[in-house]
DNA sequence: CTGAAAGCGCTAACAT
DNA sequence: ATGTTAGCGCTTTCAG
């Protein structure tokens, strides 16, 4: 900055004001400074800026995985919301481990981020304490069934499970199998299953079995699980998959093996991923506002305490929609 | 750090040494310091550390999009490679725009990252100058057909196009349609097409038409394009898709409409995405080492100039493999 | 509208 | 093996 100041014939402080766009500067001086900066290829040092102003324009993002389209869309939403304010996401992946989440939160906090995004509402006490002590603003995403740290954007996972169950029951199905993945580490999927179970039970239906693979969810794994289910002696009426990727794998299995959907077996998924529209059979699923969840979380953290009026903890329900296809 | 030092009864510099793990510290003092830090919940300030040491443990990552699985896998590879050294990725998305890439590079450079990852080898002069001036280490990913800034990890996109063409020609196909997306903004896809064209031409085949959608690539878009191609009067022998998502859409169209593959129409894609294994018909495609590309790029940037011996610009060919399915 | 002085929290360099 | 001193590049604060 000193070099730029010399070139522009002003003080270093004036350069600082021009760069940060704060304070009153005559347009003549501003132009001189910009010209000088361009000539020598000056690039701000945000480490210094952040150190002095006790505020870095970084947003910490801690997500379970990038292997699930859901989180890449959330991340896109966050990134888009931030880019207007030239805030940047720094991120880490937990692979659904609470311990790993804590490590990442600790580490990311050392960057003095302007905010932090976390997936879900369940975090270890350590994690909560570290965040509390740091005073960063937090946005939790995807889930609203529980107590948020401050603000959570998402949908009721439990209600999604209930709505799906009700629809399947209405279609006359009574004997279900649940197909999940990740060894049940995905807590949101667990809540959906809980809602599903409850509604099925109340209607007198049965969940014949719950098959939970140890693998990450994928179409291939969905196809494998489905083959396993259908090869068993006791075929259920319908399969409730923990998400669309697994369900799409189920559709593929049936397409390949000539199993009729929903005649031989009915199916439902969760998420409403775009590619479902390309499949030969439309999957019945729950459409979730993933991008919007990310975008709104990003926007909240982006507005610098301007509107910090609502300090109280809040649950922002962005809703979901049952998308009825031809699989049940 | 002063507070920790007081508690531990040592100087602040000793705390610094313990925290950064540099220099000789008696294990007794180390334990005292760690205990004191834990008691008051001390969290390092990396902004200060970075400012002083002229080196932040951030790696800038600039990718075109997260809408393409390819880049999420590259990003996973990068993230995994970095996490061992507790380096964190800060990132931005260009949406395939060179101008946006420049803006992002400028902005990310202000964090004084230890390294930067860029997609492809084509960058504006401005971008190259900014990077040059900053002196950061660079890793370019995915492409090796061209002149890298310093080191590029990837595969020959052109060769991939040639290999695909040769295989399709060997299978007896002569009249092709190329199906692409993004209005051709994806330069790697362009290089594949170039290789494809060349091999087809040399063998006396014909590319009947090149259909390039303005949409981002997706299965839905692939299905739409395929419907369009097959409804035309002049049906080609085969379609070469710029990637697997489009090709999978093509398969879906044929499955839904009863078009026989490869009897009525043959197909090939690019990438070798995992979900292809779940489809009823195995797509012929090119398997690319996306995760590994990201991982190696991350590793290079992670090793702090330890092995900066090879300053010369380098192309690291991580290869690809033709994966022969049942679509051609 | 512009400038001077001080200091954010660390680590490099030099002492001991 | 530990301590002292100085200063990284910026912004806050106070003065004009």
How does this structure look, described?
The structure is a homodimer of 328-residue chains. Chain A is α/β, with parallel strands linked by helices. Chain A has 3 domains: 2-44, no CATH class; 53-155 and 290-318, 3-Layer(aba) Sandwich (Rossmann fold), CATH 3.40.50.2300; 157-287, 3-Layer(aba) Sandwich (Rossmann fold), CATH 3.40.50. Helices cover 44% and strands 18% of the residues of chain A. Chain A has 12 helices and 12 strands. In chain A, α1 (2-8) packs across α2 (12-20), α1 packs across α3 and α8 (157-170) runs parallel beside α9. The model of chain A has no long low-confidence stretch (mean pLDDT 94). The first copy, chain A, binds a DNA duplex (16 and 16 nucleotides) through residues 1-2, 10-14, 16-17, 19-20, 22-26, 29, 44-54.
Summarize the structure.
Two copies of one chain form a homodimer. Chain A is built from twelve helices and twelve strands. With 328 residues, chain A is of the alpha/beta class.
Descriptive terms for the model:
about 45% helix, elongated, Rossmann fold, 6-stranded parallel sheet, DNA-binding, about 325 residues, 3 domains, homodimer
Q: Which spans of chain A of ≥5 residues are poorly predicted at pLDDT below 50?
A: none
The number of domains of chain A: 3
Whole-Å distance between the termini of chain A? 65 Å
CATH class wording of the largest domain in chain A? Alpha Beta
Strand order of the largest sheet of chain A: 2-1-3-4-5-11
In CATH terms, the superfamily of the largest domain in chain A is: Response regulator
Q: How are the SSEs placed, and which strands pair?
A:
The structure is a homodimer of 328-residue chains.
Chain A: H1 2-8, H2 12-20, H3 27-40, H4 46-53, E1 58-63, H5 69-83, E2 88-93, H6 98-109, E3 115-119, H7 125-134, E4 137-143, E5 151-155, H8 157-170, E6 175-180, H9 187-202, E7 206-212, H10 219-231, E8 238-241, H11 244-257, E9 266-268, E10 285-287, H12 290-302, E11 314-317, E12 321-323
Parallel strand pairs in A: 1-2, 1-3, 3-4, 4-5, 5-11, 6-7, 6-8, 8-9
Antiparallel strand pairs in A: 10-12
Chain A binds a DNA duplex (16 and 16 nucleotides) through residues 1-2, 10-14, 16-17, 19-20, 22-26, 29, 44-54.
């Amino acid at each position: 900055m000193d070099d730029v100041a010399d070139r522009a014939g002003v003080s270093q402080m004036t350069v600082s004001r021009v760069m940060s766009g704060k304070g009153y500067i005559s347009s003549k001086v501003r132009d001189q400074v910009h010209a000088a900066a361009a000539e020598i290829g000056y690039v701000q040092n945000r480490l210094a800026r952040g150190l002095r102003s006790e505020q870095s324009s970084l947003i910490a993002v801690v997500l379970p995985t990038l292997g699930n389209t859901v989180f890449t869309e959330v991340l896109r939403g966050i990134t888009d919301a931030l880019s207007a304010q030239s805030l940047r996401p720094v991120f880490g992946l937990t692979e659904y481990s609470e311990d790993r989440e804590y490590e990442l939160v600790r580490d990311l906090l050392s960057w003095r981020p302007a905010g932090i995004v976390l997936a879900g509402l369940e975090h270890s006490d350590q994690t909560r304490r570290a965040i509390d002590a740091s005073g960063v603003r937090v946005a939790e995403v995807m889930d609203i069934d529980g107590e948020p740290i401050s603000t959570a954007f998402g949908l009721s996972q439990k209600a999604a499970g209930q709505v799906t169950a009700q629809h399947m029951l209405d279609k006359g199905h009574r004997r279900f199998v649940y197909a999940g993945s990740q060894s049940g580490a995905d807590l949101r999927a667990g809540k959906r299953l809980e809602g599903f179970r409850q509604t099925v039970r109340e209607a007198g239906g049965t969940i014949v079995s719950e098959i939970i693979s140890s693998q990450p969810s994928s179409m291939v794994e969905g196809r494998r699980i489905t083959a396993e289910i259908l090869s068993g002696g006791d075929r259920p009426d319908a399969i409730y998959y923990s998400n669309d990727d697994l369900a799409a794998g189920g559709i593929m299995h049936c397409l390949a093996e000539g199993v009729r959907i929903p005649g031989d077996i009915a199916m439902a998924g969760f998420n409403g991923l775009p590619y479902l529209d390309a499949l030969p059979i439309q999957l019945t699923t729950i459409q979730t506002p993933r991008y919007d969840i990310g975008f709104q979380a990003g926007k909240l953290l982006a507005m610098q305490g301007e509107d910090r009026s609502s300090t109280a903890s809040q649950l922002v329900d962005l809703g979901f929609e049952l998308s009825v296809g031809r699989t049940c």
